[in-house]
TrEMBL record:
PROSITE patterns: PROKAR_LIPOPROTEIN. Its cofactor is Zn(2+). One of its GO terms (biological process) is proteolysis involved in protein catabolic process. Keywords: Hydrolase, Metal-binding, Metalloprotease, Protease, Signal, Zinc. Residues 1-26 form the signal peptide. GO terms for cellular component: membrane. Residues 68-261 form the Peptidase M48 domain. This is Peptidase M48 Ste24p. Pfam families: Peptidase_M48. GO terms for molecular function: metal ion binding; metalloendopeptidase activity. InterPro entries: Mito/Outer_Membr_Metalloprot, Peptidase_M48. It comes from Aurantiacibacter marinus. CDD domains: M48C_Oma1-like.
Length: 495
């Protein structure tokens, strides 16, 4: 079975290919289909084609009771859209990802990550998110965007956007590095306009009403997501708590909370809070050890038996293809590729992959060294991004004759040493260290009369931000208090 980071490389290749295929095809499925019309055969075929790759891109499909519950709720709300008359026409997938995300693609395929589900506080919020995504499909938003991309001759949404951020213009180097920063689904569902987001919210609220759910759940979920964005920024030491639109499948949810509340009006419906909480009790929260975990500035992967530490002032994001290390002074990512017991050849192949067909990229020279007992090779290439000189550094490590990992980093020219502490921190971990990595899980508890926010927050399995994490997880604002007898979520270490 391939290593998870090996699958990341395959997924990265798919991400670029899918982006090009979707924007360059002669006919965009659904582009001329009226909003709310049934799923066409062409749309169904497109969805079926990309479904397995999207699943792999987000850590795989979860099965069992958690997945069955999400499937049931999603199908119940999706059938209100008019895309199909049968709940069986919709494939609703719970993804094993620690990223807060949800999306849908033509053909009746709807997705939500377990992390986003864990953030919710009732079944109506789950239905709201899934209904919103179905709304995008019903309104043929992706088809319209793809058709517009054809007219504008845009060949790859993700690369074009992020290359301008990282390297300026339409630089192939920027496209290669940026593809490792975005999920494949983001490349296919990126850049909905504000009007399209509001239309999807409106459609989702209509579906909630038809299914008998409280339509105000759309606003409360968006509020929780905005609060989580802000908390993530604070915990990572970022000043700007808003996720840039070029790095998210959706605009900042905080800007849509009020609109969603106004759309819901005074309508009411069921929330099924207790049912929902009982159904997510015990679900993995945060990183799955099988995909590696982030603890403060340390990343540790118990299955691949490796660990490294991010430099002070940088924060990490554990994606399904790469681990990203981000900061004002530069960006780096850990990933892997095919290896045949030759570090020098491996290093040069990474540079060639980054440069692509349009730019010959090679290090000025290749240096060999040993890092914590691991054979290693590294090199740096200085290139002009159209605006300034930048250094691209690749630092590779041999773990076995057929397995290597590497960091690829970008910094302003002359500042490649920014990541020296990162490069020097890579090490192989012991079996004991690997065995000590225990996942976190959601635990549903009932508040006692003596409980307070502070007392329950102290039970959260974190060393920082316990109360803030508890409040966001349970949708409690800064002034919210505990209600005795009511159920709440806490995050604990799995036994």
């Amino acid at each position: 079975m391939p290593h998870p980071l090996s699958r990341k490389i395959k997924a990265a290749a798919f991400a670029g290919a899918a982006s090009l295929a979707l924007s360059a095809c002669a006919t965009v499925p659904g582009a001329n289909v009226a909003p709310g019309s049934p799923i066409t055969a062409e749309e169904a075929a497109q969805g079926a084609q990309y479904h397995p790759q999207f699943v792999a891109e987000f850590g795989g499909e979860m099965t069992g009771p958690y997945a069955s519950y999400v499937q049931q709720v999603g199908a119940n709300v999706a059938v209100q859209s008019g895309l199909a008359n049968s709940r069986d026409a919709f494939d609703v997938t719970l993804l094993n990802s620690s990223v807060n995300n949800a999306f849908a693609v033509p053909g009746g395929y709807v997705y939500a990550t377990r992390q986003l589900v864990n953030l919710m506080n009732n079944e109506a919020e789950l239905a709201a998110v899934l209904g919103h995504e179905v709304g995008h499909v019903a309104a043929r938003h992706s088809a319209r965007r793809q058709a517009a991309a054809q007219r504008n001759q845009i060949l790859g949404v993700g690369g074009a956007i992020l290359s301008s951020v990282l390297l300026g213009g339409n630089n192939p180097l920027g496209q290669q590095l940026s593809q490792l920063s975005l999920q494949g689904s983001q490349l296919a569902t990126l850049s909905y306009s504000r009007n399209q987001e509001l239309e999807a919210d409106q459609l989702g609220i209509q579906y909630l009403n038809r299914a008998g759910y409280d339509p105000r759940a759309m606003a409360t979920l968006l509020q929780s997501l905005a609060a989580q964005n802000q908390l993530d920024a604070q915990l990572q030491g970022r000043d700007n708590a808003t996720i840039p639109e070029w790095a998210s499948t959706h605009p900042d949810p905080a800007s849509r909370v009020q609109s969603a509340a106004q759309l819901a009006g005074n309508a009411t419906g069921v929330t099924n809070r207790e049912t929902f909480l009982s159904r997510i009790d015990g679900m993995v929260y945060g990183d799955d050890p099988a995909q590696g975990v982030i603890e403060g500035r340390q990343f540790i992967h118990p299955e691949l038996r490796l660990s490294f530490t991010a430099p002070q002032g940088f924060y990490m994001v554990n994606g399904t293809r790469a681990v990203s290390i981000n900061g004002d002074a530069g960006r780096a990512q850990l990933t892997t590729g095919p290896y045949n017991n030759d570090l020098n050849s491996y290093l040069r192949s990474v540079f060639q992959s980054i440069g692509g067909d349009q730019q010959q990229l090679a290090p000025a020279n290749v240096q060999r060294t040993t890092i914590n007992g691991l054979p290693a090779a590294y090199g740096t290439a200085t290139v002009n991004n159209g605006q300034q000189q930048v250094d691209v550094t690749v630092f590779a490590y041999e773990f076995s004759p057929n397995q290597a990992f590497h960091f690829q980093a970008i910094t302003p020219a002359g500042q490649a040493g920014t990541f020296n502490s990162l490069f020097n921190s890579m090490r192989r971990i012991t079996a004991s260290e690997a065995g000590s990595v225990i996942p976190r899980r959601i635990d549903i508890i009932t508040a006692a009369r003596s409980d307070t926010v502070a007392s329950l927050a102290r039970r959260m399995a974190y060393t920082d931000g316990q109360e803030a994490r508890f409040r966001v997880l349970n949708g409690l604002g800064s002034g919210g208090q505990i209600v005795p007898g009511q159920q709440y979520k806490i995050v604990v270490r799995a036994n």
